[in-house]
Amino acid sequence: MPYLGSEDVVKELKKALCNPHVQADRLRYRNVIQRVIRHMTQGLDMSGVFMEMVKASATVDIVQKKLVYLYMCTYAPLKPDLALLAINTLCKDCSDPNPMVRGLALRSMCSLRMPGVQEYIQQPILSGLRDKASYVRRVAVLGCAKMHNLHGDSEVDGALVNELYSLLRDQDPIVVVNCLRSLEEILKQEGGVVINKPIAHHLLNRMPKLDQWGQAEVLNFLLRYQPRSEEELFDILNLLDSFLKSSSPGVVMGATKLFLILAKKFPHVQTDVLVQVKGPLLAACSSESRELCFAALCHVRQILHSLPGHFSSHYKKFFCSYSEPHYIKLQKVEVLCELVNDENVQQVLEELRGYCTDVSADFAQAAIFAIGGIARTYTDQCVQILTELLGLRQEHITTVVVQTFRDLVWLCPQCTEAVCQALPGCEENIQDSEGKQALIWLLGVHGERIPNAPYVLEDFVENVKSETFPAVKMELLTALLRLFLSRPAECQDMLGRLLHYCIEEEKDMAVRDRGLFYYRLLLAGIDGVKQILCSPKSDPSLGLLEDQAERPVNSWASDFNTLVPVYGKARWATISKYQGPERRGPELPNAASFATSGPLIPEESKETVQELPDSGALMLVPNCQLTAEYFEKTWFSLKVAHQQVFPWRGAVHPDTLQMALQVVNIQTIAMSRAGAQPWKAYLSAQDDTGCLFLTELLLEPENSEMQISVKQNEPRTETLNSFISVLETVLGTIGDIKS
Amino acid sequence: MIGGLFIYNHKGEVLISRVYRDDIGRNAVDAFRVNVIHARQQVRSPVTNIARTSFFHVKRSNIWLAAVTKQNVNAAMVFEFLYKMCDVMAAYFGKISEENIKNNFVLIYELLDEILDFGYPQNSETGALKTFITQQGIKSQHQTKEEQSQITSQVTGQIGWRREGIKYRRNELFLDVLESVNLLMSPQGQVLSAHVSGRVVMKSYLSGMPECKFGMNDKIVIEKQGKGTADETSKSGKQSIAIDDCTFHQCVRLSKFDSERSISFIPPDGEFELMRYRTTKDIILPFRVIPLVREVGRTKLEVKVVIKSNFKPSLLAQKIEVRIPTPLNTSGVQESQISAEIELLPTNDKKKWARPPISMNFEVPFAPSGLKVRYLKVFEPKLNYSDHDVIKWVRYIGRSGIYETRC
Q1: How far does the CA of residue B314 sit from the closest CA of chain A (Å)?
Q2: Closest approach of chain A CAs to the CA of B23, in angstroms?
Q3: What would the CATH number be for the domain defined by A628-737?
Q4: For B181-207, what is each residue's pLDDT tens digit?
Q5: What's the pTM?
Q6: What's the burial of B132, exposed, middle or buried (CB within 10 Å: 0-12/13-18/19+)?
């Protein structure tokens, strides 16, 4: 990069520009100017030749004029006094007989970013707005916005605004769209351009004449229009129907968003629209324009959040080809993970399994994580695949599989047994920090079921001196202490060694402090350690269930066709957080109003549901195994403590329900088969004080209600209420998923 | 709204840089180079956020084009704009390469000045743009009367994509049916997924404001027409194709397509894309790859590939390429018996248990979807030339998209 020595270059170019011989020869003159622009492009400071360039603007050569104007727009803020010299030429050009020259001059003049230029451009803009050539009018309309920006967002010129509103009726389609853009910027403080009924209908009628950019822009502006009646609403939707089939994917997406927003009170219309754009979206997803394909895939994922079955029959369209770019493969894997259902799970898993051995380690790991995600619903099949992958003995695979196992055991405790059987031998193929942490955690928490757990941990203890990651050492301390509680004989000696090392030799303060902490804790007695280390943890499982519940279309409709689906909601929140209110995009003021209206569940109520298991006094213990006989005996010996009905539609999927209940530690004793009438289930649970909850669920199809009867062996109302609310949450969530 | 547009070569040197909005500074140019072009790992996304500024990029050969914005824009639209930008440039100087961009840099700045103003897309039709771009030669201050009136009529006209008063001595049109056939086949020879994405590109040199009507063997149309004559249905019914979805150029009257499924339009002058479509049923797969892979011991791999063509012997396929990825350290490769060119690509594949698929490239002179152009009628009521006087050319090209057989 020729960043250095710019002074010499400037000197030389200055000389050339002043040379009368060069000036006399048009081509040579233009060549020198081209060199100036070339250096400018590369980032050299070329402001030194400003004077000479201003002189060069007085020419009949249009190409030369364009180049000089480009130069002036770049450096005018640095040399405002010299730039004023050019104004004269520009003003003269603004009344040139050639519309192209007029437009060029006006556009350049409005783009000179320097103080004091406003007084010179006001008159040319006003006459430009009334120019007979639409080319000039287009430029003048946007010039109004540029002028307003120069003023620093101060007062709004009412007369100018009125003139722009009247130009919305201009013959030329681009002038119309530019008017909207210009008004939007000028009226930013007041919430942007007003779209009332006459304007909305006028724009709708002009839509077919606009090009794709104009159509996309108008569709975006129409978002803020609220039809007065249902009839008007459907008239508008009818007019817009053809844009759902536009050849421009951007217009299709824009039209889809407008449909979703306008029909926010008509869920069936929304679903209908999403069905209609399925074809165009799938086409975009398999298009050769990779970047567009990427954007489309991001939006497919967005739709899947609300309609998980929407693309399920097209799952093969989301299989990855070897030669596709990385970013498309990663998106497709995410999509596959989300559209999986009972019919296609076999094929999807088979496909994902193929990716796990891909040459790209990155992609392979993404596929394994995806299988881990599917495992939350189809646990057994996935755990089997993951276990097989361990057999490949590849470092990058083993580490991710073990991490997946850790999350899975935490979320779906029923697979603990299978995971524990798969673990032995893994330690040989794990080298990175994340993988080691996961493995050590598993060995600590479930060590009593893994025969060689102490020996694996012993290896880690032996090599602790050469361990580079402090996080691994921390995990090792906690895990070993946990294992010590369940298998003291095998662990006592090495725990002593580890603590000694951590306290006496370790240089990382956090690890040292953790070591000291555990040491002092042990001094306080084993019971104390047990209470602190092994007391029940907050239960993540209800969060998991909430996660699976579908989000209503209205919760994301206002984000559709923006950058939010591309970046993800969380990331976008951090990106946009720092952008001040003055940088607000045109949609923001509306977005707030969309979020509050519409028939969606308010966000707050969801949160309270999630907090319940933590805040209540109730703590159900995980391994309450009652035999059926004992249950029966207890059931008949007790009286019903609580009875209520719960609204329920359709049949029950016993497997789903059973799994959901299991994650909140409610055991299923017996359950009717799917579709049985009447349908019955018996459940049992026990809290940490030993209180038993026995439950009967009875579903009689004709009155679409689920009857819940709960019996308790100790009469305590507050825990009973907590238990019932947990049960309701589970049933409610399952009911949501199903419908 | 686009804040700025940058073009880089593969080294990350800026070839073109145009800033439209104040909020994009000069440092944005360097930020993209450092974070994306010079990044060590593969590109993670075509949309990159650096310091709350979004960079949208596309690559053409080894040229990077990046659009920059601080606003919450529509990603699809920005990419479409970049594609359009590439198309416009290609229409002016052909392939987008470093050399061409350097040679045409004045022209590119001129274009950027016309198609974006204050960051908003303006006119982007190549045909319409030609009036404003003065690249070739120095034009005098006083243009001829005709040129001036062209500008005014072009910009006031009701039809944005065509100017009035176009005259040709010879009325001629070219129709290209360009298809790309995509296949993903399992090792057992089972089609996992296959689709054709096709485009009908028209190049028209027609005088006046011609009204055109385009017909093809669309199943729905054929069945509709066939109702009267049952005989014909059975004859042509076999050859009709089911189109999954299609989209048209702005000039096509969609209302007519929806009601009668007829495609009528007034075409832009010069080249444009009339229609884009996708089919997934009854695709003629031009080639079938049958891989036979045997691992003989730990260090030897035997790959036998049988390729069968699936079209008339009178048709000739071109540009055939079969890629059989082999490990880097492969030795003793034997090529034999197949007359087509075989390219053995070394891959950076270190693990022998992950076998990349065998892929094919080719070009065939027919449409793998089975699409046939039945007619293209031209009516120009004001000028005295009829449909018969127009010279028409139709060409079918089927290319491979992603055509992979796993092994």
Answers
A1: 30
A2: 9
A3: 3.30.310.10
A4: 999 998 888 888 899 999 999 998 998
A5: 0.74
A6: buried
